[in-house]
Structure formats: C-alpha cells, structure tokens
Amino acid sequence: MNPKRKSYYNQKWFEYSKSVKKRDNYTCLKCGREEPEVVLQTHHTLYKHGLEPWDYPLSDCLTLCKGCHSREHDLIEPNSGWTLISIDDLGDLVGICERNGCGNEIRYEHLIYHPKWGYKTVGSTCIEYLTRDDQVISKEVIKLLKKISDFINQSTWEEGFTQKGKRFLHSTYSHNVIRIYGSANNYAFQIGIKIKGERKYDFKEIIKAPNKNLNQVKELGFIVLKGLSTENLKEKELLRNIYKRMKSIN
Predict the structure, then answer these.
(1) CA distance 66 to 38
(2) How many helices (H) and strands (E) does the chain have?
(3) Which of 4, 7, 68, 170 has its CA 20 to 30 A from that of 104?
C-alpha cells in the first residue's frame, strides 16, 4: 500500500477527520447534504510538505460528500464553475446533451465553458443545474474557513510579557490583537480591539481553551476577533456557530 494512502487508515486521521465533520455540523459544505444520504469525507484545501494528514489546522480542511470531494480533485465533472458562452436553436430535437449522465435529445444547444474541463454542449434543463451558484450559506462558511486558514498559515506570532511578567504570544489582524497565554492543553486567549485615535486596545475577558493545541487556540482566537470586529450580523451568526462546534472538539 502507498505510504501516503496508508496514513488515511491511521487512528489519528480518523479522530482528526471526525473533528472537522463535527465543526461543519456533519454536513457537506458544497451541496448541504448529510449522512446517511451521502458519504462524508474530509478535504484538505492545501498541502504542506512533511505534514501528516492530521497535523494540519482544522481550518485547512472542509467536510465534503464523496461526490463533491471528487469534483474538488477534478475526478468527476463539476456541478458549478461553468460559464454560458452561447445558445443555438437547432429547430428540432436533433442535438444531444453532453452533461455527464444525461444524454437526452435537445433542441436548444447551450455552449458552456469550465476553466478545467473545457467546452461542453448541454440542454435547457442541465444548463440551469450546471451554472447555478452553490448554496449561499455554504459559500459563506467556506469563505470564512478560508480566512481562518489564511490567518493561521500567514500570521506572525511574537513573544511578550504583561506588566506582571506573565508570558504570552501575540499577533495582530486589522490593527486588533490576539494574545495567547499558557502552554499545551492549558491555553487561554484574549482579544484586544484597537481604540480609534489612540495607541491603546480594549482588552476583552480572557477565555480559557483547555485541551486544545496551539493551532486550535489560534483558530478560536481569530474567530472571536472576527466576530467582535465585524458589523455583519449574518457573519457574526456563522462565526458563532463555527466557534461553538470548534470549542466542543477535544
């Protein structure tokens, strides 16, 4: 067995994958379907040399059903991302829909294009299916998880000390700051919101994050910071739901 593939049979991967699915409420973030209707899998949005599949921050992964996961890896025809190029009236049912699994006779040929799959001619029914947008909520959740992942992978953390000599790690985002106190499995974090016109922060309460590793605490801190700084009520609610599920992951 391929050593890389063998990693996905490791108990650590099963536990990690379970945590990702729990965060996403055991729902495919692309199509919104749940088990047992579909088989859910964990998809890495990026790969880093030398890391085992379970060593990534949770925000580097998404819960997808088997079909959507295959589409992400370009193994089967995608359901989204197509652009309508032109429409031709053949005058009668003399055309054939080229959408995978269709093959129906068609009168109106819709020429569509996908940057990875090229050109395809489909009928009136399939054009609506292939060019529709993904579910709005799913798109927003994926967008938020991407922001969390970007922060974890791109942020710079420095060491600091409080006036009482307490050590902490800190990083900034949009002029605001996240502080992390403690050590492995006994971390706590605190958010500081920049006060406009001053060189000061409004530090919020310290939040304990027991039984979490450092990446998990960074993720939680960023989610709370985003929730405090955004004025978008819908985004606040999505962040609140993500935070609750991530906080409950051991």
Answers:
(1) 7
(2) 7, 13
(3) 68
Mind listing the pLDDT tens digit for each residue in 42-77? 999 988 888 999 999 999 999 999 888 887 876 777
**What is the rounded CA–CA span in Å between residue 185 and residue 166?**
18
3-class secondary structure, 151: helix
pLDDT at position 54 is 94
Instruction: Quickly count: other Cβ atoms within 10 Å of residue 121's Cβ.
Output: 19
Strands in 90-241 per DSSP E: 95-96, 105-106, 108-114, 118-122, 158-161, 167-173, 176-183, 186-194, 201-203, 207-210
Cis amide leading into 36 (omega within 30): yes
- The whole-angstrom distance between residue 222's C-alpha and the CA centroid of its chain comes to 14
